[in-house]
Amino acid sequence: MKERFVTDGTTTEHLTGAVETYLNTSKDQLGPILANLFTDDAIVHDDGRTYVGIDAISGWTEAVAAAFSYTRTITDVRLRTNAAIVRARLEGNFPGSPIELHHHFSLAGERISALTICP
User: Fold this and answer.
1) What is the CATH number of domain 3-25+36-107?
2) Burial group, residue 13, by CB count within 10 angstroms (0-12, 13-18, 19+)
């Protein structure tokens, strides 16, 4: 998968730990480090589907990596207690491209306990 990260003045430098690593790692490179980024019972909601646990999340990242090439431009980062909300513009070979998506990360300590991706 070809994935490129760009910023338009908003960088991920305000993010730390698992969220920053998740956003700055290509989907095809995430597999070996998912257990370090997500809690064992983490939940991901994306494109009308829900993935629960590391195995399901791994399958989701692998499927995305195999199916699409895209560029992600981070346009906004909002930090909250135990949460990060990241807005990004994605352009690539997927239906509806380009699209602006919100990534809402819920955190449990240093790891991601939930991720919801929506327009």
Assistant:
1) 3.10.450.50
2) exposed
